[in-house]
Amino acid sequence: MLKILVVEDDSQLAVTLKYLVEDNPRYRVIAIAEDSDSAIAAAEAHEPDLVLLDLHLARGSTGFPVAVRLNDLGIPCLLVSGKAPRFPMPDLAIGCLMKPFTAEDVHRSLAAAEDLLRGREALRPKMPDNLTLYEPAEPPAAPEPGFIPSKPSLRTRLEHWISSHHH
């Protein structure tokens, strides 16, 4: 069973989402949060498998800091928004489901998210038109063997700059 946290400040929509999610017996909503603080607290307390995260939350907060914290906790999220981000954010979310959506859009989006989370290659044939899945970011190239990353001291940086500008 996939444990899902719903983060949505519109209480009527949050309850509707809960019912739509739980139409499928494989999914259970473990908590509903309406702002960033309660979302992070609920994620830490309930350890969901997936978070449906609205980007515009109550009390002037946004879903972005929540997505960052979820990423730190290793909890994937699917953005749910009336206004999509202007660019994909594969480091923060697996995708974005645009509002308004139908019950079928939610069901298909959850199935696609579950496929991704479980490492299934074959995505469902009919994706909702209002769902965008983000391509995972490419991992950074491996450094050369023996490379030890470090922050050069101010003195080292100054010496480098002086030697590069000294003719």
3D structure, described in words:
- This protein is α/β, with parallel strands linked by helices and 167 residues long.
- The protein contains five helices and six strands.
- It has helices at residues 11-21, 36-46, 64-73, 103-117, 154-165, and strands at residues 2-7, 27-33, 50-54, 77-81, 95-98, 131-133.
- The chain has a six-stranded mixed sheet, with helices on both faces.
- Strand 1 (2-7), helix 1 (11-21) and strand 2 (27-33) form a beta-alpha-beta unit.
- Helix 2 packs parallel to helix 3 (64-73).
- The longest helix is centred in the middle third of the chain and has 15 residues, at 103-117.
- The protein is globular.
- The model has no long low-confidence stretch (mean pLDDT 82).
Which keywords apply here?
167 residues, alpha/beta, 6-stranded mixed beta sheet, globular
Net shape: globular
Measured between the Cα atoms of the first and last residue, the distance is: 67 Å
What is the number of E strands? 6
Radius of gyration using CA atoms only: 20 Å
- How helical, in percent, are the residues? 25-40%
SS summary, helix count: 5
What oligomeric state best describes the polypeptide chains here? Answer: single chain
User: N-to-C SSE series?
Assistant: EHEHEHEEHEH
Largest sheet: 6 strands, mixed
Q: Strands of the biggest beta sheet: in what spatial order?
A: 2-1-3-4-5-6
